Amino acid sequence: MNIATNLDDSWTVAGRSFRSRLIVGTGKYKSFEQNAAAVEASGAEIVTVAVRRVNISDPNQPLLMDHIDPKKITYLPNTAGCFTAEEAIRTLRLAREAGGWTLVKLEVLGEAKTLYPDMIETLRATEILAKEGFEPMVYCSDDPIAAKKLEDAGAVAIMPLGAPIGSGLGLQNQVMIRLIVENAKVPVLVDAGVGTASDAAVAMELGCDGVLMNTAIAEAKDPVTMARAMKLAVESGRLAYRAGRMGKRRYADPSSPLAGLI
Amino acid sequence: MHEDGTASIRVNGEHRRVREGMTIAELALELGLEPAKVAVERNLEIVPRSTLGEVRIEDGDDYEIVTFVGGG
Lengths: 262, 72
Fold this sequence. Notes:
Oligomer: heterodimer
Largest interface: A-B, 37 and 26 residues
Strand order of the largest sheet of chain A: 5-4-3-10-9
Low-confidence stretches of chain A: none
Distance between the termini of chain B: 43 Å
Mean pLDDT of chain A: 95
Number of strands of chain A: 10
Helix content of chain B: under 10%
Order of helices and strands of chain B: EEHEEE
Strand content of chain B: 35-45%
């Protein structure tokens, strides 16, 4: 059977299987309605969410949960904005209590300007979280050695950045992403840096198990259409990876036969 | 404990005066929150959701009440 007719191409993280290889964020949208429509168009089965103080002065404001149903879409709580292991762990303990989920996204940032991960704190947090029964999917630098250490520490997925968070620059580090994919025994997802559909396809063609993005969809002029474009790009890149691309040549190779030329 | 039967606490960084002895679940409802949609930390310790209706507020408590919001 060829690959295109084998429709079961699900992937598994921490024992949970998903068909969609696209994870989308829920930040920066103009409205909850637009956000929900974009999630629908993306086909995503997992969305990232942040943990923040409730608005006590206006408790009747609509909640994310009222628009994106956590019973239908898996919420992946993140630790965005945390700069130490302790802050991140505290945030995720609260997230686990709020939702009852142990599958979480860990990110420990090094500084506000680049939002580049602090890998020492990230590794420390991963170890502690794994011991506490969490299943952390971990945002990390594109360092194959650090990625291996994260995996050994209990990361259930490795999520290297393709470019700085929110930059939309596309994958600046294809060689390193490929090395991480080749070495990993857990899923690898590019998290951050995707700007448009072709970037998502590139990540999948490198052999990544999935792609996580937020800004590329939320800040598109038409987020719902871009969400659909990303769905197609991830599927397309995945199929191209499975099909196995042709080898590259330095010179031309004619597609029409040379024999029988008049 | 104050003479007027109230407790002085902090909720998400803001001072509040509430009835001494009320439970955390009662506090959440008084704040207009659905206990099922929030998580509560009391003096830096998680309060398991199953005990929100049992744990009673004490003077000087510091609470963080959080929920899920949009994020990447």
